[in-house]
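Q: Protein A?
A:
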Amino acid sequence: MNESSQNRADEGDPELLLTDLASKTQLSNEQERRCAVAARAAYAIDLMRREHESHGIALLPLDLYLRGLAEFAGVSLDEVLTALELSSQDRATAPLSSGVGLLARVARLIGLTADETQTLARMGMSGRS
């Protein structure tokens, strides 16, 4: 890996990290796919966390707030949710497989407090009643 590539890998570029991993290990296609999903999700979560830290919280329903952060960060919230859903299925943690549970998990990962997450989740639920 050259110096420029190493700097990008140090910053969390998932494609370079995966290339480096693949060159050092023997992965099956399924393992490589899972690593790619996890790496892209972790990178997206980090970018969303940075946006949250920069802009703070907006009083919107949780799903809209997270989608807005993902849009500002230039990432796909759906990719993050898919990765978290896969990992929760692997551990057989059924409560996290609900939509609100996955959104709450993303909220926690990007730095929202439990109170902030509950407030935004309630806003979404009250709008649907």
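Q: Protein B?
A:
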Amino acid sequence: MLRNLIRFGLAGVFSFGVGTAAPMALADDNSITDTAKSAGDSTQNAAEKAGGAADDATKSAGDKASSAASSTENAGKDMGDKASDATKSAADKTKEGAESAGDTAKSAGDATESAAKKGADATEEGAKKGADATKKGAKKGADATKDATKQGADKAQEMTK
């Protein structure tokens, strides 16, 4: 059945094609055909214009999207640069603070050392003065004892005479 359907369908198409080929060949001089051709050309031109407008719109949208992406990229880069600058500034200030703290600590250490040295010098000087005073006091005491002993001995001699 399928075979018959194909066979008769092909025969019908062939006979229709032969029957319509002659009038179409003679239809070139027909004004209706010219009108249809003109309408087809107009339709084709309109389709080309619409395609061109669609291409332009697509290109414009692509350009705007590209511009927006560039703007977003630039904004991201600017934010990254600002964050980097802020981090560098904070690191520099930390370094300056550490150096200042180190200088202050060194200065305090120097002042402590200087004060300790002055204290040691003063203690040494005080000890020397104390030793000298003790020596003088001992000498005076010895002299006084010697004098007292001499006077006592003189009196004892006078009494024995």
